[in-house]
Amino acid sequence: MSSGLRLGLRTESIKSLLRLERFPHIWCPGCGIGTVVKCFAEAVLKSDIPVEKHVVVSGIGCTSRAPGYLKLDGFHVIHGRATPFAVGLKTVRQDLEVTVIAGDGDILAIGGNHFIHAIRRNDDINVILVNNFIYGMTGGQYGPTTTKGSVTTTSPYGYIEGSFNVPYLAAALGANFVARWTPLHTKELTAAMLEMFKVDGFAIIEVVSPCLIYGEMNNLPPLEVMKLFRDRTVIDHEADLSKIDIDLRNPEKPIVLGNFVKRSRPSYQTLVRELIKKARGR
Amino acid sequence: MSERISLLATERAEEWLLKPGVYFMQGNIASAEAALIAGCRFFAGYPITPSNEIAEHMSRRLPQVGGYFIQFEDEIASVNAIIGAAYGGVKSMTATSGPGFSLMQEAIGLAAMIEAPIVIVDVQRAGPSTGIPTLVGQGDIMQAKWGSHGDYEVVAYLPNSVQEMFDLTIEAFNTAWEYRVPVIVLADQSVGQMIERLRVPPLDEIKIVERKAPTVPPEEYLPFDSRYLVPPMAVAGEGYRFHVTSLLHTDKGYPTTSHEHSVKLITRLIRKIRENEKIIGRYEALALDDADLVVVAYGITSRSALRAVREARREGLKVGLFRPITAWPFPYWGLREAVDRGAKILVVEINMGQMVRVVREYYSNLVEIHFMPWAPGAVPRPHDILLKIKEVYGGE
Asked: Is the model's pTM score more than 0.95?
C-alpha cells in the first residue's frame, strides 16, 4: 500500500481481495466502476466457491482494468475478446467460476459478435457489463449504448444512432440470467452477482454507471447521475423488456432495474460433458 | 468437477489414440491425430478451406479422448479461446487458412505478449484476399512472422509431407509449451490435402513436453519472472491468484509504462527464441557438399525441387537442395558452408518473393542470389525448376 493511502472503513471487508500495492486506481472521481468492483469482491467472499476458483477476465477500457485490482486469477486481454477467452478457459476448466468484467464498447461494439454467440451457445460464464454510455478511456467517443442526442468527441452535433437495450437483447438471445442495476443499488447488485454465480449458463448483469467524461460533455456530472438513479429508477423484475431502453436525457423516462430473467436452459458446458460420455460409449 | 480436470490434465487416453503402425492418411488428418498424441484437448476453429478436415476430424476425435471441440463464430474468437484454454493448463490448437490467419493476427501478438502456448495450423492457399480457396499458395511466410504489431517472436514449421504434418504438429506443441510461445504449422494446401504413407511410432518413442509449473509458494510467484528466459507457468485455479495483462507488464504481471520494464520484457520475449534458434530451427540439406548451386525450397515446392535437383545431377550439374523445416527461426546457418564455398543460391517459392528476402538478408553480399517467383494456384513442376536451374547455373 502506498503511503498516505487509506481505505475507507467499508473497504476493510474486501481487503483480502484487493491488490493494494496497485492503488490508487486509475478511475476518475465519481466513476461507478469502483463500486462495482467492491460489490463483486463482496459477492466473491460471500459465495460458497473458493476464492482461488474465481477467475476474472476483461478486455480493454476503464472497466476492464478491474481485474488488475483484484487478487484473483485475472486476465486482462485484448479489446473485445474477453468473452471468447473466458469461454475457452471455462470449457476446459469447469471447476472455475469465470466472470467477464468489461464495458459497453468492449462487449457490445468490438466484441458484439462474441457476445451474441456466447449467449446463443449458452456458455456458462458470467458477464458484468458496466454501461457508462461512452468510451471513457480513449477520451469520450460515442459507443453502442450512447443516448440519442448526446454530445461526444465523435458526435459534436449530437448522437443520431440507435442504442442497445441490453437486457432486451440478452433475453431475446436466450440468456439464463439477465439483470440491470446501478452503483447506487449496492445491496441488490451484490445479491444479483451471487445469483449469477449459481446460474449454469450465460448470466449477465448490466450495471448502468456514471462517467465523468460523459458528464462533462452532457451536463450530467457523476453526482447528478447518481441523483438521477435515485429519482428516476424503478425496480420491476417483471418489466416488459422491450420498453426498458435508457434515455439519460429524457427526464420523463424511467430507468428500469431488476432481475429480469431467470431460466435454466442447460449450458453448453453441461451438454458437452454429456457429449463426451456419448462419444466414449459410457 | 475435479474429475474433469484429472481427465484432461493427466489422462493420456492411450486407448483412444492412433495406434503405432503404417497408415495411408491425409496430411490434415495426420496433423489432427498428432495433436491428440501431443496432448491437445481443446480445438477451437471456424470453417475454412483447405483446412476443414482438421476441424472435422477433431470434432469426432476430441470427445473420445475426453477433450473439447468448439466451432466458434469466427477465427478471432477461436484463437482467443485457445489462449484462454492454454491458461487453463490445457494444450489447445486451431487450424485455418490465409483469410482466417489474417483475422488471428492480433491475438497472436497477445499470445506472444502473455506467453501463452498455442498451436495454429495454417494450411496456406492462394491469396491475397479470398484468392483461390482450393489451391496452393505459400504467401503467408512473412505474415507468420510479422502479422501482428510490435516486436515478438513466433516459431513456424514448414511440413512437406504427410509424415511431417504428423511429426511437426507434435513438435509444434512441444516448442509452444517449452518456450511459452505461439507456434504455427505453416502447411500448404497440397501437403494438407495429399494422402500418402504415414508411420506412427510407438507412443513411448514420441517426446512430449509438458508445462513447467512454478514450484515457489504463491506469494513468491512472478508470472513473468525475468530471471528466467522462459518463466514457469501457473494456470488458473491453482491458488497462485496471478494477474496477466496484454499491456506491457512487470515481472509481477502488472501494467507499466516504464522503459526499463519495456527493455526487460520485450528483449526477453525476443531472446527466448533467438538464443535458442539453433535448437528450434531445423533444415534438411541434400547434396550441398560440392554444390555450385543451392536450390532453396520448402513445403510442397521442395518436392518438385528435389526432383529437379536430381535431374540436374544426372545431367552433371553440381546442384544441391536446402530445405528449411522452420521458416522462423530461419535456419540460415545451414547455408553457411555452401556460401563460404561461393555456391550460388536459387530460391523457389509459391509467392512473389518472401523467403528470398530472408536469404538475401543473410547472404546478399556474399553470393549471387537468384529467385524464381511462382504465382499461387499451382505447384511449379520439376521441369519448370530445372529450366531455371540451368539458366542460373549456366550463367558462369
From this structure: yes
